[in-house]
User: Fold this.
Amino acid sequence: MHLNHFILNALTMKNLIAYPFRIILTAIILLTSFFAFAQKDSTAAVHIGFIYPVSSNGKNAASYTNRFSLHAIAGLSKAETGFTLASVANVIRQDASGVQIAGVTNVIGNSASGAQLAGVANITGNSASGAQIAGFANVTRNEAKGAQVAGFMNLAGNAGAAQVAGFTNIARKDAKGLQLAGFFNKGNEVNTQVAGFANVAKKVKGIQLAGFINIADSSDYPIALFNFIKNGEKSVAVTLDETMTGIVSFRSGGRVLYGIAGIGYNFKDNPKDMYAIEAGLGAHVPAGRNLRVNIEAISHTLTDFEGGSYFKNSLRILPALKFGNRFEVFAGPTLNYVSYERENDYDFVKKYIWKNNKSTDFQGLFVGFNTGVQLLF
Assistant:
């Protein structure tokens, strides 16, 4: 009944995400435990074989602790204390120290120290204190104190030094070091998260950097277009600049850093309607009870969608005054670098600090302004 309950529980969505290899690991450990039943524990300096039970330790291999193991296909043992190598799999019922190398997988029933290298996966039933490197996944049920490096996924109860994966890192509890993933990171209390698409955490001590979205209860330094921070700030702003471009933008972030994403329209009398899109990063600098300075780095594009485009990168320094808890007005100077095809001959700005008259595209540097009002929520 206990085993049936365990398997049914493992197949629920929550446990399928948290323990994707639990059933496989359990089956292997139960199988090897059967072979080891009633056998006397032994030690061996060298264990050489083909595949269980064709090896120097024979049918009693599951009860041996070895210092050196070499197997043509797969090896089975109670524990390993030195070097272990197999072309397909190393299956170790209890603890492993030293180095384990397998073409497909290393399966360790209890704890691992040293290093595990596998072409597909390293699976550890308890904890791992050394490095784990796998072509596809590293899965440690409890704490992974060392680095986990995988081509696709790292999964651990607690993560220590670092989790680096091509797709996703998941720490079911805390991640003390860096989480670096091509797509997604998740943890409870984390230090630093860097992901190509999204990061999810409860408390973030350091930087949370994502290509699209960050989600956290507490994160002072989120860097993404969209940041949903429980103790942070979100706002909708309406702004106007020196080119007479109006922008409606969504600003979201923590107590210090925030992301900016907006769309708008240019109100000058242009031959064609020009529409705007902007994205960037900002930082709040407190200057008083209801006063602060918002420093923003923005990339801004005006286009008529027919080949005419005006590109502007800006640094804004915007003193801001808050009225009550909901409204804030701001205005300040901007330093802008623009680029566009000369044939378009845009006349948004008359005076430049510097301009390039020799390149194919027009390039210029000028001082402008930005002003606006935002609703905080």
About this structure: The chain has two domains: 25-229, 233-376. Helices lie at 2-10, 13-18, 22-36.
